[in-house]
Specification:
By secondary structure, the protein is α/β, with parallel strands linked by helices. The chain has 2 domains: 11-179, Rossmann fold (3-Layer(aba) Sandwich), CATH 3.40.50.1970; 185-389, Dehydroquinate synthase-like, alpha domain, CATH 1.20.1090.10. The chain has 15 helices and 10 strands. It has helices at 22-28, 42-45, 48-58, 75-87, 99-112, 185-203, 211-233, 238-252, 265-277, 281-296, 301-310, 321-338, 345-348, 355-364, 380-389, and strands spanning 11-14, 33-38, 62-66, 92-97, 133-137, 149-154, 159-164, 172-175, 371-373, 377-379. The strands form 3 sheets. The protein has a 6-stranded parallel β-sheet with strand order 1-8-5-4-2-3, sandwiched between helices. Strands 6-7 form a two-stranded antiparallel ribbon. A hairpin with a 4-residue loop joins β6 and β7 (159-164). α11 crosses α12. Bound molecules: 5,6-dihydroxy-NADP (NZQ) and zinc ion. 5,6-dihydroxy-NADP is lined by residues 39-43, 71-72, 97-101, 103, 138-139, 141-144, 147, 149-151, 179-180, 182-183, 187, 191, 194, 252, 267, 281-282.
Length: 391
């Protein structure tokens, strides 16, 4: 196991009706003038924004609204938010929604207190300082409610890139599983896929002797395999949604990723798809993961065989571990299909003739060196082959 520092100071408030504590929590973490930042309308329609604003008002806090965050959030609204925060002396940002609203809130939080262009952080600069951020989560998926990360698309060039810094870890996150009951089945399934991808990206490691985090990841994957189909079958199943919501947080606050190298090539490969085609990130991952894993499997076939046996119940073929490894990848693919996720480029709305564009942006876009690195280092030819496997 490698040396590590794990710093995760977010206060999680979990359960029914917890959104009504938003005002008290903002106050506890020092906010007085609050930007309420949300998406395209689901949180308005459900009455959630009204409830959250009422709770802010009850604590004597002043609030401002900025809605309209799109899935795969864009830079334009971030610039608008930064301007608004400066103009109104906002001192706390409350994201109400999913990963997109939370990531946009984090970008505004970092950009407001920074002299330069906020995009510097998405080109590799570490975020040292930001306004405090809190979240009210409405979809179990991205894990942004407990992560130090944010992913934004720069409209000039449509580069989808990530930024990081402990300063943007939420001060608090309110997780009420009942709020996810209004999700369309496709979004629920995309969330399940993303959570499983966060676990797999950590499982694919080159660090030996990481039994504790291996076992934690396996437990969370088993939970997703059990609870995923239950919630697809019955969207009102509160307990299944509760288990998925907490698994989604655990999958990405890095408690399962400490002390080990991680992959993230699949996420980078997928981000090009959601940047170009605006598909749901989880749906893109459902097509990407099996292709990447098939391509890189031989780098450490025993790792893929291990997850196949421990998580998917495959029989270990000691003479031919690659057979077991492949069986595990196939079970993962079939699982995604069974919950309603796409299986190919075409089902995602992606086009074969765009592969050179995708590969160029992936390997060279926004200053990249021609390769992407993770479990294995992939060059242009590798990435082309991987996109072709998705056809
Ligand atoms: O915009 P509204 O109207 O709210 O609709 C949203 C959106 O259309 C809808 N939705 C959310 N909660 C709902 C609901 N509809 C009905 N009822 C509810 N309770 O669902 C759609 C998707 O929302 P979004 O916030 O985009 O979903 P998600 O949480 O999957 O976030 C995806 C974004 O997070 C990034 C992805 O790349 C993508 O841009 N990621 C962020 C990470 C991080 N910050 O750590 C890590 C992830 O790997 C990921 O890359
Ligand atoms: Zn993800």
């Amino acid at each position: 196991m490698n040396n590590f520092t794990f710093y995760s100071p977010t206060c999680f408030v979990f359960g029914k009706d917890t959104e009504n504590q938003a005002g008290a929590l903002v106050k506890r973490f020092g906010g007085s003038r609050v930007l309420v930042h949300f998406g395209g309308g689901s949180a308005i329609r459900s009455g959630l924004i009204d409830r959250v604003e009422a709770s802010l008002k009850a604590e004597g806090l002043v609030s401002f609204r900025l809605g309209g965050v799109k899935p795969n959030p864009r830079s334009g609204l971030v610039y608008e938010g930064i301007e608004l925060c400066r103009k109104e002396n906002i001192d706390f940002i409350l994201a109400v929604g999913g990963g997109s609203s939370i990531d946009s809130a984090k970008a505004i939080a970092a950009g407001t207190v920074y002299d330069g262009d906020f995009w510097d952080f998405y080109s590799g600069k570490y975020i040292e300082e930001a306004l405090p951020v809190g979240t009210v989560l409405t979809i179990a998926a991205a894990g942004s409610e407990g992560s130090p990360d944010s992913v934004i698309t720069l409209e000039d060039g449509m580069f989808k890139r990530g930024a990081s810094g402990d300063a943007i870890r939420p001060k608090f996150s309110i997780l009420n599983p009942a709020l996810t009951q209004t999700l369309p089945p496709y979004q629920t399934a995309a969330g399940i896929t993303d959570i499983m991808a966060h676990l797999y990206e950590r499982y694919l490691t080159n660090t030996p002797e990481v039994e504790v985090t291996d076992r934690m990841i396996e437990a969370l994957l088993l939970t997703m395999i059990h609870e995923g189909p239950r919630v697809i079958e019955n969207p009102d199943n509160y307990d299944a949604r509760a288990n998925i919501m907490w698994a989604g947080m655990m999958a990405h606050n890095n408690s399962c990723g400490v002390g080990r190298s991680q992959d993230w090539n699949s996420h980078n490969i997928e981000h090009e798809l959601s940047a170009l085609y605006d598909c749901a990130h989880g749906a893109g991952l459902a097509v990407t993961l099996p292709a990447v894993f098939t391509y890189v499997m031989n780098h450490d076939v025993m790792r893929f065989a291990q997850v196949a046996v421990r998580v998917w119940g495959c029989q270990m073929d000691f003479a031919h571990p690659e057979v077991t490894a492949r069986e595990g990848i196939e079970k993962l693919r079939q699982f995604f299909i069974s919950i309603g996720m796409p299986r190919s480029f075409a089902e995602l709305g992606a086009k074969e003739e765009d592969i050179p564009t995708l590969v160029h942006s992936l390997c060279y876009g926004d200053g990249r060196p021609g390769t992407i690195s993770g479990f294995v280092t992939l060059n242009e030819e590798d990435c082309t082959n991987i996109y072709r496997l998705m056809l």
